[in-house]
Amino acid sequence: MKTTGGWWVWGMLTLCAALVLGAMTWLTRHVIGSERDRAIAEARADLQERVRLALWRMDAAGAAIIVEENQRPAGGTETAPGSSGVAKMRFEISESGALSASEGESHLSELRRLLRENDGDENLFPAVGKSLRAGRDAWEAKKESPPGTFGITGKTGYREVAEQEYNSQKERSVRSKAVDNQANIVQAQAAAQPTKRAQPEILGDTFAAPSRPADGAIPSWEEGTPRRTLLEIGPVRPAWIGDQLFLLRKILWDGSAPDGGKSIQGVWIEADKLKQLLLAEVRDLLPAAQLVPAKSSPDGMVLASFPWRLEPGERVSPASLPRPIAISLATGWAAAALAIFAAAVLVRGILRLSERRASFVSAVTHELRTPLTTFRLYSDMLETGAVREEKRGDYLRVLSHEADRLSHLVENVLAFSGIERGSARTAMRQTSVRELLEPFHERFAARLASAGLKLEWDLSNASPTPLLRADTAAVEHVLFNLIDNAAKYAAGGTPPVVSIDLVDRAGEVAIRVRDHGPGIPPKERRKIFRAFHKSAREAAETKPGVGLGLALSRRLARSLDGDLVCEEPRDGKGACFTLTLPKIK
Known about the structure:
Layout lengths: L3 H68 L15 E8 L4 E5 L4 H10 L6 H18 L16 H35 L8 E3 L2 E3 L21 E4 L3 E5 L2 E10 L7 E9 L1 H10 L9 E4 L14 E4 L11 H62 L4 H33 L6 E5 H5 L3 H9 L4 E4 L9 E5 H18 L7 E9 L2 E7 L21 H6 L7 H11 L3 E5 L8 E7 L3
Parallel strand pairs: 12-14
Antiparallel strand pairs: 1-2, 1-8, 3-4, 5-7, 6-7, 7-8, 9-10, 11-13, 14-15, 15-17, 16-17
């Protein structure tokens, strides 16, 4: 039964353990959270860098196509290497509504249907003009587009998000200006060298390439063909018409409609081919990247060259905890758990030892009270002459027995105390088994006789060899404790005999002490070797003793490099203890 102090100690230990585990939990969560944020930040930075490089690559490829389309003459059948691989057809729509094609004439009917579906008007010029203006506005908006996020934002604060938006805005502006500057350079070169550009001629709904005189005069046309002179040509702009992608530019001719005035030239781009062309540029950076049409306000992920938005196809997810940190945390948890377990075991051992010592004090008090009471009573009776002469011998024998009992108790306590403190001294000497045991016969027999038992002592098989190195006093103490216990517990057994015999084993000699008493239950055989295992109540209700003799005997045996064990008798009756001592090799 635990004392109040024991419960208090366990309560404090539980509180300390809770504090340690709570601190470890907080530290673990903090370390994992910090490492997770760091890993996500690194992954996000890596993804943003790859997205930035991918956008630059795709814009460089897209800008090359746009610039080369800007270099294409305003009319005619001349070709340039730019978009020839992705162009479905080239066409021109005049302000009067005339539609002509220089390449891909088979797609004219399809183009007319597409333009009507997106405008609903028989005059196709406004539909294309609206798309061109939308493309131009989107192009201009890239320089001053609303805040967006470049890459993928994670669980960051307001400042981090604002910084990302600022950087993406700056990045988008730089790319847009780079593409725009390339187009402006081409336009400036074209304006500076007008005689090197092919001036187109439109005959009905078809393009014709005019000849250029050496003196730069107005071209001469074939008879019956209206003359047109190019006054102004705008830059090529990408635009969506429905779900189809076009490159459009505005042209101003000399004269008025139907032969002069405004017209819009365009290239119908095969979007899938262009998409694959651009994605092929970034497969090493973003293997799962995709391009989706960007028809709304552009953000940091929209190309500066074509109205496509880049979808990286990757998600920034928390990485697994690095092995060194995981090992450190696991080691910390293991150390904390081991420390708590060790503290619990230590506290339990201390409390159990304290309880056993308290029980020992109670048992010793009880053991001392009985003989002291007998001493006082019998000495008073002998002193006052209250005892008849013929009874005095009995009284004196009782007093002598109680004195031996007290002496044996004190001897056990002192010996156990010396072993506990490590100050017990042994006088080891070399001897044979017969020389070791013969001096104990008389004392053992007398102790058993006082309990009505007989000692069977057979040393006939004890030869002068083997030799042992042992402490005679310690061996006598161990064996006398066994004889004393037999006298206490085996009195009245059948037959009333306690036997001591020898067994010569390999490397050791076994001295077996056996009685025919009630025996020891198997579950009690380990308990009897514990120090102070008897409480005051058990000492009062059972035979005299404090439960220290067997614990002391085993420790003495082990100090001699031997052992003391309780064995099951062959016939299942009584108790059997075996003391083993090593031989001299």
